[in-house]
């Protein structure tokens, strides 16, 4: 009996046959527990202040607003309204279309820049990267506001052209429409697309390019058959990083979109604010999340398919 | 020869990134309340008038309080998570990391609205505390991203040596690990402070009656007469952010060097 348990404990604790290990000591020796304990404050914070609130929003979307009271009987009425009312449909389609266009523009603009950084910059690479990331950190509100100054009715472009006598009245089509929203978003999100593409280009084994050249591919074919397919993960990541947040952008449509450039998040804000219909606002928010997720998954699927056809 | 067109493109791209924003400081010194070319002359009137604006100074102080609290708390949470993710393997690691990093891709309005609903339902009133809670959520992923680069490639034998020499795990952390990653931590503090300083949406939804600086700027945007003041304020905010970020970048590179991973390129 004693011999058996002794053998047991010896095989358990391995080389260091420590007798009667306390729970604290055992805790410090268990790598998995230590990792879990260390991440738990951050994880719990995200659980309580991100996941739980989002679930509450989902719950709200099935409830009804009765003046100041919330009726907790589950219903799909909010979703019926969110999906059938032409106003919400227009806003949702516009948000998706604007974001898709902005994503396309930022990707096309960012790719050559990322390529340049990865293949042509040998010295001062960190400085170049830093210059690109500064706008990424500085105030989003101010970057959007700058375009209002440039494009506005009394803005820099109009006032300057009038001062010079080129035009007699301010051009109204510059600001407060979908175009100005697209221009502003494409500018504000430009730096976000560069980094993921840059990272995937950096990972490409340069000897593959030499091999392609040795096997007779010209620069264009080499790019299309080696570089571009291998940078696909970066392109996908960049597209998602730009597309997902821009669908829910509030500041840009509000500041430069006018009446015809408003997007879905402006309506979500109205429902949680002035209209005071939280359940409907929640249904709009949840619908947006679901649609964006579905669109992103489709996009990733299509891109993967394209990528596999290259090889 | 081949390099040329791409270099021109790169410079043009940088110009595209910076020129629109440069309109703010340029017009903030313009001696005219109308924002238009040609410039009328140089004045510091808009800046000096700002210092007598108590609402603005109050908003600035609010932003500094929120930013300071956000920086400290999100960096502590970031240290825990970055250390756990780089040093240990455990079940559920990837899904936990995914949830923590989620605010990076979630539309901000979702974060703002869901926090608003929960806080009001629980009976909290909106204040700078609620803004700080939201900002921590948004800043932690960035803190983790910055700190991971200084925890990764970290020579574990240094810690093992300390443990072998008789230090406990806690003492080892404070006497060996912490000094090595200190520049990374400083970089994280500065970056999370800047994020909070510049963040608008969450502050807009959760600030109640105490505006932060971006919320104050937003409230001034509809008054055309106030535009030059907003430009002056915005320019100062930009300058502050750029200074903080530059220091953070220098720190980050030092951290990467200390941890043994070479920072890409090097500032020289």
Strand and helix layout:
The complex is a heterodimer of chains A (311) and B (268).
Chain A: H1 2-13, H2 23-29, H3 31-60, E1 64-66, E2 69-71, H4 77-84, H5 86-119, H6 125-137, H7 140-151, H8 156-163, H9 178-202, H10 206-214, H11 219-230, H12 232-247, H13 251-256, H14 264-272, H15 278-310
Antiparallel strand pairs in A: 1-2
Helix pairs in contact in A: 3-15, 4-15, 5-9, 5-12, 6-9, 7-9, 9-12, 10-11, 12-15, 14-15
Chain B: H1 4-28, H2 45-50, H3 54-87, H4 93-101, H5 108-121, H6 128-151, H7 156-164, H8 169-198, H9 201-206, H10 213-220, H11 227-258
Helix pairs in contact in B: 1-11, 3-6, 3-8, 6-8, 7-8, 8-11
Tell me about this structure:
The complex is a heterodimer of chains A (311) and B (268). By secondary structure, chain A is an all-alpha fold. Chain A has a single domain (85-310), classed as MetI-like (MetI-like fold), CATH 1.10.3720. Chain A is built from 15 helices and two strands. In chain A, α4 packs across α15 (278-310), α9 (178-202) runs antiparallel to α12 (232-247) and α12 (232-247) packs antiparallel against α15 (278-310). Chain A is globular. With 268 residues, chain B is mostly helical. The interface between A and B is large, with 89 and 91 residues.
List keywords for this structure.
heterodimer; A: 311 residues; mainly alpha; MetI-like fold; two-stranded antiparallel ribbon; 2 strands; B: 268 residues; 0% strand; disordered C terminus
